Amino acid sequence: MNGFFHIPSAIQNSYGSLIVLHLEEALLPVLAGLLLALPIGLLCVHYDWLYAPVLWTSTVLYAIPSIAFFVVLIDYTGLSRLTVMIPLCLYSLVVLVPAVVDGVRSVPEETNAAASAMGIGLVRRYFQVQLPIAVPAILAGLRVAVASSISLVSVGALIGNQGAFGNLLTYAQLYRLPRLAVTSVVTTAVLAIVIDALLVLLRRVLTPWQPPSGRAAAGRSGATSGDSPARTAEGAS
Amino acid sequence: MNVLNFMQSFFNDGSHWHGYDGIPQRVWEHLQYTAGALGIAAAIGLPVGLVTGHTGRGGDVLAFLSAGARALPTFGLLVLMFVWLGLGIVPVMIPLVVLAIPPILITTYEAIRTVDPSPVDAARGMGMPEARILFQVEVPAALPLILSGLRSATIQIVSTATIAAYVSLGGVGRYILDGLYQHNYEKVAGGAALTALLALLVLVLFWAVGRVAVSPGVRRRRAA
Questions:
Q1: Which of A23, A61, A184, A185 is the best residue to mutate to test the B interface, defined by the most B CB atoms within 10 Å of its own CB?
Q2: Which domains does chain A have, with CATH numbers?
Q3: How close, in Å, is residue B40 to chain A by CA atoms?
Q4: Does residue A144 sit in helix, strand or coil?
Q5: What DSSP letter does each residue of chain B carry, written as one string?
Q6: Which residues from B are below 8 Å from A214, CB to CB?
């Protein structure tokens, strides 16, 4: 571990500021993705026919490699962090929209009926009744989206040092210094695990009615659909 | 200029269609990487998922392992393996397999575990041995979900195998990276379009496999 935290000056950042940079580049897009996924989810739940085309579009978007996305976006947004963050936001949508829709669809019909009977409107019902019940499924999707986002930021290194810890990988090859690659991989993995643990904690705070292990509840619709964004395309078609 | 124009001029250029750097050759390489990584990942993920799903034990361990595998950065792993192991196919296969195992493993486990228990109990009551229960009752019923896990793993591999070009291997990613370094956006857009086409091909392929392999009864019930 000798020199694990030593970063070459060419990176222009210290270890600590790389962490901040990496988390910003990874988490802001997922946050934006979540804010977009909620209204899209509402539309998909309300208009059933919308869900299948949305899923197919997002599956194809997901298949476009991140590096190609970055390069095409350079024309519009330049060599900036935005170029990295826009594709990451789109990728997170692919995971989050099915998670939101599946979660909301699994809300018991009686609950919806009760809310309607109390005179709660469609949009208010979505945000105040259905979404809180769907939290385990949404957070399962959020975990997958965050993990892949943290991993993908590194690819930004290819378009001129926009990859935070990924930038170390370029220099690992340039200077023949494997330890830089080790630092990059280990730190990125630890960041992903720490954030994942925080999300698990967040789920427990948001769903106090669930048993602490939470597997039975979160596992059913959430974990699988989150793992396989393309899966629900089949169910819907 | 927009992206569609780039794609059009890429595919219209005759020199992209033959030879060492031709589209058929690159696509063939890409398919080889994909098939190799998928084969290895399935050989690990499917048996483990089937057995743990059947016994219903080890779910927490699997969730933990797949969260760990997801945490490993694919691109970082590729460069690390390349720096350690040198030029070759192994540094490319390792990150792709690590990427593909979690969706296969978790989906298979969930698929088998959530099979309707009454036919399973009926089979057991009729004296079926456990192995036959797994392969003749549980797997056919869980097949649509298992296939969807394999499908999303395949799509992720197809998309990610483009990074093989970064460590001097072939595949469709060659166009994307060469285009990046040569400031030739035609190539980048063309490479991206080829990757998306391959992914669509995967979707069609899995749809066809599902039509053939999934029993009509299971399909009807899912549709209902």
A1: A185
A2: 14-228 (1.10.3720.10)
A3: 19
A4: helix
A5: --HHHHHHHHHH-GGGSSSTTSHHHHHHHHHHHHHHHHHHHHHHHHHHHHHHHHHT--HHHHHHHHHHHHHS-HHHHHHHHHHHH-SSSHHHHHHHHHHHHHHHHHHHHHHHHTS-HHHHHHHHHTT--HHHIIIIIIHHHHHHHHHHHHHHHHHHHHHHGGGGGGGT--STHHHHHHHHHHT-HHHHHHHHHHHHHHHHHHHHHHHHHHHHHS-HHHHHHHH-
A6: none
Cβ atoms of A138 and A96 closer than 8 Å: yes
* Interface contact A185-B166, CB threshold 8 A: no
Record: contact B144-A234, CB cut-off 8 A: yes
What are the domain boundaries of chain B? 25-223
| CATH number for region B25-223 | 1.10.3720.10
Q: Do the Cβ atoms of A192 and B70 come within 8 Å? A: yes
Provide, as residue numbers in chain B, all residues whose Cβ is less than 8 Å from the Cβ of A230.
Answer: 148, 151-152, 155, 203
Size of interface A-B (CB pairs under 8 A): 185
For residue range A22-78, what is the model confidence (pLDDT) as tens digits? 999 999 999 999 999 999 998 998 888 888 888 888 877 887 888 888 888 887 887
Chain A interface mutation, best of B34, B72, B79, highest count of A Cβ atoms under 10 Å:
B79
Encoding tokens for residue A96? 């989050």
Q: Which residues contact A158 (CB under 8 A, 6 or more apart)?
A: A67, A70, A170, B166, B177, B180
Among positive and negative, which fits the CA dihedral A152, A157, A163, A169? positive
**Measured between CA atoms, how close is A118 to chain B, in angstroms?**
31
- pTM of the model as a whole: 0.83
The tens digit of pLDDT for each residue in A96-134 reads 998 999 889 888 888 989 998 998 888 888 888 899 889
Asked if A193's CB is within 8 angstroms of B59's CB, the reply is no
Where does A66-177 have alpha helices with state H? 66-77, 81-105, 109-117, 122-125, 131-152, 167-174
Contacts of A68 in chain B (CB under 8 A): 162, 176, 188-189, 191-192, 195
Residue of B70, B160, B153 whose CA lies nearest to A66? B160
Q: Looking at the partner chain, which of B66, B83, B176 has a beta carbon nearest the beta carbon of A71? A: B176
Q: Could you report the predicted ipTM of this complex, rounded to two decimals?
A: 0.80
The tokens for A115 are: 């809310």
**Cβ-nearest to A64 among B71, B75, B195:** B195
Task: Please give the Cα distance from B82 to B75 (Å, whole number).
Answer: 11
